[in-house]
Structure formats: structure tokens, C-alpha cells
Amino acid sequence: MFPNFRLSMTWLHTWFGLLLGFVLMVAFFFGSLSVFDREIDRWAIPATRIEARPMPSFDTTLAPIFRTITDPDPDELAAAKTRVSQPLPDKLAVMTWSAFTTHRDPVLRMFVEFKVPNSPLPDDHIHGSITIDPRDGKQLPENRLAIGSEFFYPMHFSLHLNWADIGYWIVGFAALAMLAALVSGVVMHRKIFREFFTFRPNKKIQRSTLDLHNLSGVVALPFHFLWALSGLIIFAGLYFPVLGTMMRPLAAAQEKLEATQTGLDLEPSGTPGTLASVDGMVAEAKAMWVERGVPGEVGFLIVHHVGSSNAYVSVYRDNTDRVGGGPGLHFQGSTGKLIHEDPPEGAVSTVNSFLIGMHLQRFKHWTLRWLIFAGGILSSVCIVTGLVFFVEKRKRQHSEQRRSGARWADALAVTTVTGMVVATLAILVANRLLPEELAQRDLWEKSTFWAAWALCLVHAIWRSSAVLKARTSPAWAEQCWAIVVLAIGAVLLNAVTTGDHLFKTLSEGYWPVAGTDLMMLACAALAAIAARRLQRRATAAARAVDQDSELREVRHA
Amino acid sequence: MPDAVLLIAALFTACLGMAWLALAMDVHWKQVCGSASPSPVISKLLRGLGFATLLAALLLCLEADTATMAVLVWMMALAVAAVTVAFVLSWRPRLLAVLLPWRRPTAR
Amino acid sequence: MASVSHPPWYVASRVLASTLGGYAFTWGFISLGAMLLFAAGMNLEEASSLSSMLGFLVLLWGFCWAFVAASLTRVWSVLAGGGVVMPAAGWGLSRALM
């Protein structure tokens, strides 16, 4: 596009970085929080502040509960109604029952898949799900929002824009832009090794911002690249549904062939059947794991063709000791006999499940979990500094030319950086302030999040006129103060409303809540430091203007 | 040795290796030691020491975990270590002088 | 960056080639790649997963190359051409392999 390679790459880096930087900020920030989604859930649902426990008995606890889940999620049902030619029956047939848990889950999520008949899509189904307390099998109240796993985590990959999966596509495009920004960034950066450790916080803001951008980008380059890439790979079936569309006939034929080899039927037989003791199957699976030297708990359990004579049960290990997944054991439902064991993964599947596994982090390794969180924060820093640098580089020139581009970029940057943190803390504060029995409490919490974010946008736009005069928008510092107030407020509210103050959680070693509180305090401290520095700089700049002297000299003094 | 000790050692070693790599560079040597640049021999030695120490960090990771996990821990530890060293260099560069025990501290 | 100025349609054409063209090209790469690997004896799921993983790198290459290549005509003919020919070939192979 330009006469030389580097210029083209610079153009790509600048403009796609700016356009998708806002989305990337959301994806990486909420991705970082999602590393600790279960811990945030514990903070947000005090009734579940109990130790994590293994999968309870299927026969006595889970089976009776599965039978009570007879209705799919109303939103999914409404969506399904629009894609079928004929009206749906009152009761949809149950396809599968499944339960999923990890070493960090004190509660258990249970899922039921319902078949959608007369659908143009193959294997069309919708879900019903509940969360139970495995100690007594009681369902958690439905208006409790698991803020970590049900709000921050889906935000990370879908932006909560579910219509036509548009959010997934935007985040996917942003991930591609991230990869392209890394490649072009390496091309643009002339001193990757010479400035590997370089950060000069006392230089002009434009210089130190670029230093931090380069530093965070370069030292964690493998992390940035691998996580953006594995994020795309996780949704490969959505972005490139080759087997599901164009090659469906071949894929279906292969599935049929495979089913005859494994004995795991694709369709229910049509004749009713009974289910043998699933606890017996689990016991056999655990015995087999012990025999192989990899004892473990059950992570995922699924009953296929529920109620049918050819039902089968698949049992998967929780694999806390490895990055990727592991083979499943499949038992005949009627007899409880092992009918098939997944063969060891080939080279391709091993790489695939490693990439997906490192992104999803089901393993039990707290050091690595924290390091990955740090990696996510480094990505966020890299994106923020990129956006700030864009504005810093242009604001003087735009101000002289009376253009407002830098102003709008700055207002959006404030909104996606400090504004996003404000919204994140606002939902946690709302979570502690709203009355427990409020109808649709979860909806109120989510609305608080969006309202706080919208307010930050308005505030950022209102205050951004300073950028027109080539100054720093006061919105940065002001929203930093809002972060300080909200973060400390959330920690105090948690102490007051639940009694789990830091002295208690720290002395008891209850890390999910202690960690969340400590992170919010750390966030408050950082925001306070940032706000003070920004305001000191602004005062210095204003004084410099008063004295009609050179801006630069004051900053150096 | 318990895994926690190994992992803490790995993180520490990664920081050490990164610090020596930084000290092998003129600009950071000057930040830490004052004016003089390291002699080419010292610079090469520091670089070798740095890389060897980073390798030692990998071995510690491999001792603590299975290979796939260990490689991830090491990769992330390097990133965090590099940032840590960069921040020390920007705010408290003189702290790194302890990594050059054969040099007498130079008066400013 | 303002040193060379292009008419808006030219920039738009590059952007479209990099995104839509790159997407079509990658779709072709993944479908044809999966079919060739499958024909060579790899299990279908592994074949499609390998070609998808490599496909995202192809997507990245196409996205960048569309801005770097000197000739816009070449960009369009490779990306769109590959995006038509490769999926068609992949589709044909998939029917032939049934």
C-alpha cells in the first residue's frame, strides 16, 4: 500500500490498533479477570463461600435433580421457535444430562440438552441448566448472578452481544488484529533487543508511554501471540465451520462409521431403557485411573440418549495435573459395562488440546494461574499504552489544526480503560448493596454495570475538550478517583454485609474472597498513585502556561 | 524439594538471569554502576551467565512440573522477570549492583 | 503516514481484500487442507483441526500481505481467486471421498 514494507506495517498497526484496541482492551481485561472467575463468583455469592468439593453421587443426588429440569432456558427457547418451521411441542425431548466441575468449584453446574425438532440445523438443541449446592443438592436461588463465570467470562469472548453471534465475530476480528499488531509491531520496532529492558518514566509522557508499550509488548510477546491465537482456535468451529456446512455429508458419514466402530450410537434407539448405577461406572473409571498411575476426580459426566435403551455414559477425569484434556471412558447405560475408551491423542490433537487447555486453565497450578493473570495484565497495559500513545502523538498537531480526532480517541480510551474498571467495580458494589430478595436481582446488577460504563463515556466526552487544547483530559484522573472510591467501597461493603473482612479471610486462609479483596485494594492504590501523578502533572503544566515559560522545562525540573 | 520451593526458586532465578542480561548492556550497566561501560569480556560473561541462569530456571520448572506445564510456567516467568528487572532499572537501578559482587561500589 | 495519500476507495479496497478476501482464502485453505490430509489417511477430525490451526496463521498472513503487497490487483486475484478455487476443490474432493 505504501512504497515500503515498514510504512505499510506502521499504517496497519496504527489504524487497526486504534479501531480494535477498544475491543481488545475489553477482551484482555475481562480475560484476565476470568482467570479468577470462580473466585469472583465466591465473592459475589456469599452463600457459596465453602470449600470446593468433588462431583457428588449421581444415583442419589444428581439423577433426581436432572429429572426435575424439564424446561429449557426461556431465551434459548424463544430463539429456537424462530428457526423451526412448525410450532414446537410443549415438552421437548431430553437428549443429554451432564454435570461439570473443577477443583475450584464448591457448587455444581448441571445441564440438560433438549432436542429441537424440525430444525434446519443438524443436531439442533437448546439447554436448561441449574446450579446446586452439592452438600444438600439444593438449587441456588436463580436471581444470584455468578459475576465471574456468568458475566465477566462471557464478556471476554462475546461482549454479551449474542444476536447472530456478532460479539464473537467482533472479538475474533480483534484477535486477528492483535496478531497482526504483534507482527507489525515487531517490524516497526527497530530496537527490540537494545531496548528490551528500557522504561524511562521520567521522560515526556509520549516517550514513557511508548517505552511501556514496547516493554509490555516485547517481554510477553509469546503470551500475547499464543493467547490471541488459541482464543481463535477455541472458536474455530464458529469462525470456519467447514465440517458443519460444506463438508457436512462427509462428516456425517464419518461420524456414522465411527459410531459403528465404537458402539456409541449417534441417535437414540426409540425404545425406552433403564439406566444402571452411574456411581458404579464412576467407581470403575476411578479404579482404572488409579491402575494407570493417574488417580483423579471426575470433572465431566454426561449421559447420552437419556431414557433410551442405547443410552451411554461418558466419564472424564478433571485433569488438574495437566494442561490439555484426557481420554474419556464410555459405559453402556443399561448394563454399566465399559464399551469404549478414547484412544490416546495423536500429535495434532495433543497440540490442539494443549493450546485450548492453556487458554482455559482447568489445571491446578496457582503459580501458573497468577503468571497467566500477569500476562493478561501485560497485554492490557500494552493496549492501553498504544491507545494513549496514539493520542499523545497527535493531540498537539490536531489542536493546532483544530481537528477533533485525538479528542474522540482519548474519550473512548478513557471509557475503555478507567471507565471499564469503574463499571467492573460498580457491579461488585451493586452486588453487595442490592437487597437479597430483590426480584431479578441479577438484571439490576448487570444494568448497574452498563449504566456505570455509559456514565463514564458521557463523563469522558464531556471532559475531553481539554485534549482540543493539547492538554491531558482531566477525566483520566477523575475516573481514577472513582476507581479508588468504588474499590475501597466494595471491600468495605463485603466486610459489612457478609462479615468476611480481610482479617478473617486472611487468618482462615480463605483465598477466593481474600484475594478478590486484596486485588481491589491494590487496584485502588494504583489508581490513587496514577490520579495524583496526573494531577500533579496537570498543575505543573497549568503553572507553566501561567508563567508563560516552556512546558518542557517544568517537566524536567 | 516441595514444588512451591522449586517454583519460587525458578521465579527468582528467572529474575536473576534477566538482571544479568540487562547488566551486559552498556546503558543498563551505566545505570547501575555509574559511568564506565563493562569491558567486552565482562559483557560477554554477563550475557553467558544470564542465559545460563535462565536455562537453570527452566530446569527448576521441569523439576517441579510435567514438561508441558513447566514450559508455560517458564515462558510466563521470563516475561514477569523481564518487567520486574525493567522496573527496578527505572526506579532503583543501584539495587542491581549486588549482582556484581566483584565490583567495589563506585562513589557517585 | 500522511506522506502518501490514497483515494478512499483504494484504502477501502485494501481493507476489504485483507478481511473478506483473507477470510475466503482461509476458508479455502482449511477446507482443501482438511480434505487433502483426510485423503492422505488422517482421521477427519484431526485433519480439520490441523488445517484450522494452520488456517489462522494463513488468515494472519493474508491480512498483513493485503496491505504490504505492491499490486492491489495481485492481492485481489490471489485472495479472492484462492477463495473461490480452493473451497471448490475442497468441496469436490469431499464428494469424491464419500
Describe the structure.
The complex is a heterotrimer of chains A (557), B (108) and C (98). Chain A has 557 residues and is α+β, with helices and mostly antiparallel strands. Chain A contains 20 helices and eight strands. In chain A, helix 1 packs across helix 13, helix 6 runs antiparallel to helix 8 and helix 8 crosses helix 12. The mean pLDDT of chain A is 93. Chain B has one domain. Helices cover 73% and strands 0% of the residues of chain B. Chain C is an all-alpha fold and 98 residues long. Chain C has one domain. In chain C, 84% of the residues lie in helices and 0% in strands. In chain C, helix 1 packs antiparallel against helix 2 and helix 1 runs parallel beside helix 3. The mean pLDDT of chain C is 93.
Structural key phrases:
heterotrimer; A: alpha+beta; 20 helices; 8 strands; C: mainly alpha
Q: Short description, anyone?
A:
By secondary structure, chain A is of the alpha+beta class. Chain A is 60% helix and 8% strand.
Helix count of chain C equals 3
Q: Alpha-carbon distance between the termini of chain A?
A: 44 Å
Number-wise, the strands of chain A total 8
Contiguous uncertain segments of 5+ residues of chain A:
none
Would you tell me the structural class of the helices and strands of chain C? mainly alpha
What's the helical proportion of residues of chain C? over 70%
Largest sheet strand order of chain A: 4-3-2-1-5-6-7-8
Number of domains of chain C: 1
Helix content of chain A: 55-70%
Q: Which structural class do you get from the secondary structure elements of chain A?
A: alpha+beta
Strand content of chain A: 5-15%
Indicate the overall shape of chain C. elongated
Give average pLDDT of chain A, whole number: 93
